[in-house]
Design a protein that fits this description.
This protein is about 45% helix and about 30% strand. The chain is of the alpha/beta class and about 120 residues long. It has one domain: Transcription Regulator spoIIAA (2-Layer Sandwich). Strands 1, 2, 3, 4, 5 and 6 form a 6-stranded mixed β-sheet that branches. Helix 1 links the parallel strand 2 and strand 3. Helix 1 runs parallel beside helix 2 (about 55-70).
Length: about 120
């Protein structure tokens, strides 16, 4: 699994690809942690369009990222969440934890504002 990172209007956009399982979870955790540590109030968008599968440890990494970012006054949004990952989030009763957006433009606009 590889993760592309780019910046747009103060929002770090992470684009993981492949399966978020096994050792890939640790890789993603390192990428996310570095982004959170690099900002006083991290704003992050995770684009799941290239992710084919994620297990519960991947979901745990996202929850940890949400907690860490929130503690620093930051926010994390998600876009292009596929059916399998969405089902995992819903089954875990965590669907209301993540900020869901329909498009990257909408997400960046909302996450870059001071809310």
């Amino acid at each position: 699994m590889a993760t592309t990172i780019r910046q747009r209007d103060g929002v770090a956009i992470l684009e993981p690809s492949g399966k978020i399982m096994g050792t890939a979870v640790s890789d993603l955790r390192e990428v996310i942690t570095a982004q959170i540590d690099a900002s006083d109030a991290p704003r992050m968008l995770i684009d799941f369009s290239k992710v084919t599968m994620m297990d519960s440890s991947g979901l745990g990494t996202l929850m940890g990222a949400h907690v860490a970012a929130t503690r620093q006054g930051g926010r994390i949004g998600v876009i292009h969440v596929g059916k399998n990952i969405k089902n995992l989030i819903v089954r875990s009763r965590l669907v209301s934890v993540f900020e869901h957006y329909d498009t990257e433009d909408a997400a960046v606009s909302e996450l870059s504002s001071e809310s």
